[in-house]
Specification:
With about 150 residues, the chain is α+β, with helices and mostly antiparallel strands. It is built from four helices and five strands; from the N terminus they run E-H-H-E-E-E-H-E-H. It starts with a strand and ends in a 17-residue tail after the last helix. InterPro entries: Acyl_CoA_acyltransferase, GNAT_dom.
């Protein structure tokens, strides 16, 4: 397994894996509008500060992806993971933890200081991230407002 950056040739395969993972348990996302899906994924992958990483096998087949952004902060550079996923048929093999480790090492080599993300407490992802060294930020809270 190796880490590589997403390129245009990988985009469609990554998109198909994304749809398969998040259309099923426990998320059940309903990406029925193709234009909305394309808009979302391109916003994640095509910005100047986008960092889209793939976990690939020895045949260069995509096993998982981490889609996010880099930000500079007074404490150093941060990588914000917006989407992190492993192919459904390859989950529960320890590949997600290996992927996080590879991302961590890659970012450490580039002097990044933090990896940050949001997740729901009622999904397996919450415990996965805790198991892999992520912790709750006591001073921070995630907030949203429905536009009415």
């Amino acid at each position: 397994m190796k880490l590589k950056k997403l390129n245009k040739n990988d985009y469609q395969e990554m998109k198909n894996i994304f749809l398969d993972v998040f259309s099923h348990k426990p998320w059940f996302d309903k990406w029925e509008d193709e234009k909305q899906l394309e808009k979302y994924l391109h916003q994640l992958t095509d910005n100047n500060n986008s960092l889209s990483l793939l976990l690939v096998d020895d045949q260069d087949e995509i096993i998982g992806a981490s889609l996010g952004y880099t930000f500079s902060w007074w404490q150093g550079d941060e990588y914000y993971i917006k989407e992190f996923f492993i192919k459904r048929m390859r989950q529960n093999e320890g590949l997600g933890s290996k992927f996080i480790e590879k991302i961590n090492n890659h970012l450490k080599d580039k002097d990044f200081k933090y990896i940050i993300l949001n997740t729901d407490k009622d999904t397996p992802a919450y415990h996965f991230y805790q198991k892999n060294g992520f912790q709750l930020e006591e001073k921070s809270v995630f907030m949203s407002k429905i536009i009415d």
